[in-house]
Design a protein that fits this description.
alpha+beta; 233 residues; Immunoglobulin-like; 10-stranded antiparallel sheet
Length: 233
């Protein structure tokens, strides 16, 4: 009866289309029980029509009040955009970074041992080289599409992921500013090839950095980097 009750209410409120109202009136003429139901509901609907308009309107939501002692309500920080002063670069890497500030080309060769990049057909191929925490022989590539909105990441020679860890790719500056691009697992053969979105311009950062992360719910960089390479040739 819910559907018929709604139709009766709409009829009594004058909200039915003319054809629907006419069809219902024909049924009323032939169905005493239906006429009785309409008459039973008529006073109820009549009382509803007398209610003030504000009863039918949703109340305005209360204003957002900042916590006591704060000047304004601040949005929660983005999950993956972090400054990590605790991420300390090892002496050999720090030396390379100092050289990079003096002569980019020479330092890149010294720090990344052949981490040059080249452009082919609207894409840019950037090389990731092993750093101190990476296993011997580990290497990778970041292939940027022409619009730089997506990257194909291909890595080899890494330790396989187990149930307690995974790998994560970051854009990184040497001052600790970074943003995560996504995480993935590496199979038993030490190889993985994945496609990851690039939500910001890589040119705003200095390096692509691949970290080994523990599956412990902490979204920040673990401080354990295995591969790294420059974001530009």
């Amino acid at each position: 009866m819910n559907g018929e009750g709604d139709q009766i209410s709409s009829y009594l409120l004058g909200e039915l289309e003319p054809a629907e109202a006419s069809a219902l009136e024909q049924r009323l003429a032939a169905d005493p029980a239906l006429r009785e139901e309409v008459e039973r509901l008529r006073p109820v609907v009549g009382r509803l029509e007398t209610l003030p308009a504000e009863v039918w309107e949703a109340p305005e939501p209360p204003p957002l009040v900042p916590p006591e002692g704060s000047a304004e309500a601040r949005p929660a920080p983005a999950r993956r955009r972090r400054r990590l002063p605790a991420l300390t670069l090892r002496p050999a890497v720090a030396t390379g970074l100092a050289a990079l500030l003096l002569a980019v080309g020479i330092a890149t060769g010294a720090l990344f041992s052949g981490g040059s990049s080249d452009s082919r057909g609207g894409t840019t191929d950037l090389v990731l080289e092993r750093i101190d925490d990476g296993p011997a022989g580990a290497h990778g590539d970041v292939l940027l599409a022409g619009d730089r909105a997506q990257a194909t990441v291909d890595v080899s020679g890494l330790d396989p992921s187990d149930s307690g860890n995974f790998y994560e790719l970051w854009l990184l500056d040497d001052d600790g500013r970074m943003i995560s691009l996504g995480s993935f697992r590496v199979g038993a053969d030490g190889h993985a090839a994945v496609e990851l979105p690039i939500p910001v311009s890589p040119s705003r950062y200095q390096y692509f950095d691949l970290s080994l992360q523990e599956d412990n719910g902490d979204p920040t960089h673990s401080g354990v980097s295995v591969l790294r390479g420059p974001t530009a040739s």
